[in-house]
Amino acid sequence: MRRAKVDVPTLNLSEKTVPELATVAVWRTVPESAQPASHELRAMWRNTRMVVLCVLSAALYAAVLIPFKVLPLIPGVTEVRPGNAIPVVCSFLFGPAAAWGAAIGNMIGDFFGGVGPGDIFGFFANLVYGYIPYKLWAVIARRDQSPASFTPAAIAKYIGCCLAASMLCADLVGWGDNMLSLRPFWILGNVIIFNNMLAAVVLAPLVLAAVYPRIRAGRLLYRDVMPELRERAKPVRIAGLIMLLVGETGAWLSGNLLSTGHWQPHFLPAAFFASPYDKAIAIIVSPFVVLALAGTMLL
Question: So what CATH class is 38-231?
Answer without folding.
Answer: mainly alpha
